[in-house]
Amino acid sequence: MIKYILKRILLMIPVILGISFIVFLIMSFTPGDPARLILGEKASISDVENLREKMGLNDNFFVRYLRYVKDAVFYRDFGTSYATKIPVNADLMDRFPETLKLAFGSTLIMVLIGVPVGIISAVKQYSLIDKVTLGISLILTSMPVFWLGLMLILLFSLKLGWLPATGADTWVNFILPCFSLAASMMASLIRMTRSSMLEVIRQDYIRTARAKGAKEVTVIYKHALRNALLPIITIIGLNFGGLLGGTMIVESVFALPGVGTLTINSIRMKDTPMVMASVLFVAILAGIVNLIVDILYAYVDPRIKSQYAKN
Amino acid sequence: MTEVKEKGRSTIKKRSQFKSVFFRFKKNKMAMFGLVVLIILTLVAVFADFIADYENDAISQNMKIRLQTPSREHIFGTDQYGRDMFARIVFGTRISLFVGVVSIIASLIVGAVIGAVAGYYGGAIDNVIMRIMDVLLAIPQTLLAISIVAALGTGIFNLLLAMSISSVPRFARIVRSSILSIADQEFVEAAKACGTKDARIITKHIIPNAIGPIIVQATLNMASTIIGIAGLSFIGLGIEPPIPEWGSILSEGKTQMRYYPHLVVIPGIAIVFAVMALNLIGDGLRDSLDPRLKN
């Protein structure tokens, strides 16, 4: 098991390097001069040229990229933001808790509503509840997050005045953004839970459990749900990983100071070190979440555990 | 009951794969609803010039009639520059569908070639290509699209490019995996044993069997592409005002939302309809291509 985890972590290294290369490449095409950005419009051409030389911006692309990787790997120095002039790590760590709260909150909502609703929908297949649930989840998957966010603001902040539309001061601020993010993922979780449960419910061992007189609740939650859990965990894990890098638009709708708004602003300002750091950070986190999901599999399904042990 | 009916017919004349898929698709009411909505939206996009006046109603400002709520004259009301919302939504349909269709076709072609090469040659080439695709997949799609747009600048063409590049890895992956799974099957082996040429195996055996899941993926991807386009325009990195695009209409209406909710409600409903239609068609196609997968 430990060997498997180590192997997976080693496999992440080339992916991370690849991402850093691609983002570095894209950023190098972005118009605008970082030295000019730092010194401002009024700086003289020779000052800008001196700073370019000092920052090594005149070297060719590969030299710059290798230098970035060297600094990042050996000195854990991801550079200094062009805009704020402080190390990017500080900015990132400052913003990350907000995005994490957002990701946790939406995952919590998604699981607490999605899984039970999916189970009920499967148990009462073709009933009215089932049809209504499927209809609502279809609409929820088709809604863009930013529009749902605007609609929630319109209803709960502007019309009813119950919840704040912007800011990140208390947990109340996170209710609307979390719900807008959770909605479409919740819909896919409902469908996944439903189809996974439907598959299991028809198995022979469920009939056996019923025949031996087990209570319906026990049959559903102990015999059926446990066996239906694997795809459900996959969806939850993938969504959580995706959330860490997918909160940009919601953060900008609700003016939340998270990693997402930081990334968008840095992209706009051609703040290459900041962009690199936030993209890599998100990608590494998503990779770790995926690994955790795979490890969780082993606990849910002993067959997979033995497979990991074999490799 | 349907099984009996299908069997009865098949003794008379064997239905082609396409016909039997369409037969099952037609029976799926939700999917047919999606298809009807999509056809209507396509007609609106194609004949937008006959429905509304681009220059006078959708683009030029008319401050005298600004911020009107829906009425008989302006059924969707007017925005803060006095432009007719109905005309803007109609022309927005054209842009959303155009960018959606073109970027899906472009990424499908590129993805299919990459995936097919990887799947066909296997070995080291396969490994290298798929690792590169893994890297691209590890970057969140919106983030990748935003960075490409930031690097190239805004505008329809760059938006197209960004949306296409960011969905190439998904197509490459699905094409490769369906080619691999089919190339292994017995009927391909049988064809090879009969001495069938590679070209014929690919066109007659592999493509017809692989195309289904790819079309489904393309339909569902187009739904998320339409959301992506609107999202980029919404945060100001997609299509720029005054060009009427659903996302940029939303973003312009946002400031007036408190007193004129129609400015954000209506364009959103347009997006939901388009996306829902594509999702329904995608789901319906998946079910009719492989009825066993249903539920």
Describe the protein in words.
The complex is a heterodimer of chains A (311) and B (295). Chain A is built from 14 helices and no strands. Chain A has helices at residues 2-29, 34-39, 45-55, 61-74, 88-123, 128-141, 145-159, 175-201, 204-211, 216-245, 248-253, 259-268, 272-300, 302-310. In chain A, helix 5 crosses helix 8 (175-201) and helix 10 runs antiparallel to helix 13 (272-300). Chain B has helices at residues 2-12, 17-27, 29-46, 48-51, 54-59, 85-121, 123-138, 141-152, 156-183, 186-193, 198-234, 246-253, 262-289. The longest helix of chain B is centred in the middle third of the chain and has 37 residues, at 85-121. The model of chain B is unreliable at 1-5 (pLDDT under 50). The chains are: A mainly alpha (311), B mainly alpha (295). At the A-B interface, helix 1, helix 6, helix 7, helix 8 and helix 11 of A face helix 7, helix 8, helix 11 and helix 13 of B.
> Which structural class matches the secondary elements of chain A?
mainly alpha
Oligomeric state as shown: heterodimer
Shape of chain B: elongated
Task: Tell me the span between the first and last alpha carbons of chain B.
Answer: 19 Å
Order of helices and strands of chain B: HHHHHHHHHHHHH
How would you characterize the largest beta sheet of chain B? Answer: none
- Largest interface between protein chains, with number of residues from each side: A-B, 46 and 40 residues
Write down how many β-strands of chain B occur, each being a DSSP E stretch of 2 or more residues. Answer: 0
How much helix is in the residues of chain A?
over 70%
What is the 3D form of chain A? flat
Q: Given the structure, what is the number of helices of chain B?
A: 13
**Could you tell me the strand content of chain A as a percent range?**
under 5%
Order of helices and strands of chain A: HHHHHHHHHHHHHH
Main sheet record of chain A:
none
Poorly predicted ranges of chain B? 1-5
What is the radius of gyration of chain B? Answer: 23 Å
What is the average of the pLDDT values of chain B? 82
Distance between the termini of chain A: 9 Å
What's the number of helices of chain A?
Answer: 14
